Amino acid sequence: MTNQTNTYIIDDKLYLNITDRCTLNCTFCPKNNGSRYVHNYDLSLHHRPTAKELIDEIADPQQYNEIVFCGYGEPTLRIKVLLIVAEYVKSHNVRVRLNTDGLANLVHRRDILPEIIHCIDALSVSMNASGPDTYNKLCQPALANSFFAMLSFVKAAREYIPDVTVTAINGLPGVNISACEQLAKQLGVKFRARQSGIVG
Ligand code: SF4
């Protein structure tokens, strides 16, 4: 047990907070606005949890309806840990969802989807905008072409993973929610409008 929040429960789901790093620097990210709290959980990490720490905290995955990789960082940056933990959860027949920025293939410079499909049931990708200009303003990516890389990831993912959703946050400057919904339709995936500051 550590004195940081590696895992946290919301409703009947267990969320895994495996890293605080990402290649985006979103203007709307709570961590950029002085808060690392989700509900009453402080998601600040003193160290990045090991696979063993996460598995020990999960204990019996069947206590939960779903286990979700989601924190103030991008889980696929720790692909090895993600895989070990997701395989553990799947070995107990519990649904696994990955919340991601969709930039794993750009970051790792390879298609990581074939490596994760056996242990990920659902993917939720933060699309955030319907075009690169708004995306770049809102997300301030460190890597060039992030918006288009994210779209390519979504297109590739729908071939592998049955449940793919893209999300955007309602009410952010420049974000046209109906254009985002339309883009999701063109991509052949589901769309969900999120509320600012709400994790899930
Ligand atoms: S990708 Fe997520 S964690 Fe990273 S800056 Fe954006 S909102 Fe924050």
Features:
single chain, 200 residues, alpha/beta, TIM Barrel, two-stranded antiparallel ribbon, 7 helices, 9 strands, 32% helix, 20% strand, binds iron/sulfur cluster
Summarize the structure in words.
With 200 residues, this protein is α/β, with parallel strands linked by helices. It has a single domain, classed as TIM Barrel (Alpha-Beta Barrel), CATH 3.20.20. It is built from 7 helices and 9 strands. The chain has helices spanning 51-58, 79-90, 104-108, 113-116, 132-139, 146-160, 177-187, and strands at residues 7-10, 13-16, 37-38, 41-42, 66-69, 95-100, 122-126, 163-169, 190-194. Helix 2 links the parallel strand 5 (66-69) and strand 6 (95-100). The radius of gyration is 16 Å and the shape is globular. It starts with 6 loop residues before the first strand and ends in a 6-residue tail after the last strand. The model has no long low-confidence stretch (mean pLDDT 94). The site of iron/sulfur cluster (SF4) has 10 residues, from loops. Iron/sulfur cluster binds at residues 22, 24-26, 29, 31, 72-74, 101.
Structural class: alpha/beta
Tell me the helix content.
Answer: 25-40%
Q: Looking across the biggest beta sheet, what order are the strands in?
A: 1-2-5-6-7-8-9
Rounded mean pLDDT score: 94
Chain-wise SSE layout:
Elements: E1 7-10, E2 13-16, E3 37-38, E4 41-42, H1 51-58, E5 66-69, H2 79-90, E6 95-100, H3 104-108, H4 113-116, E7 122-126, H5 132-139, H6 146-160, E8 163-169, H7 177-187, E9 190-194
Parallel strand pairs: 2-5, 5-6, 6-7, 7-8, 8-9
Antiparallel strand pairs: 1-2, 3-4
Helix pairs in contact: 1-2
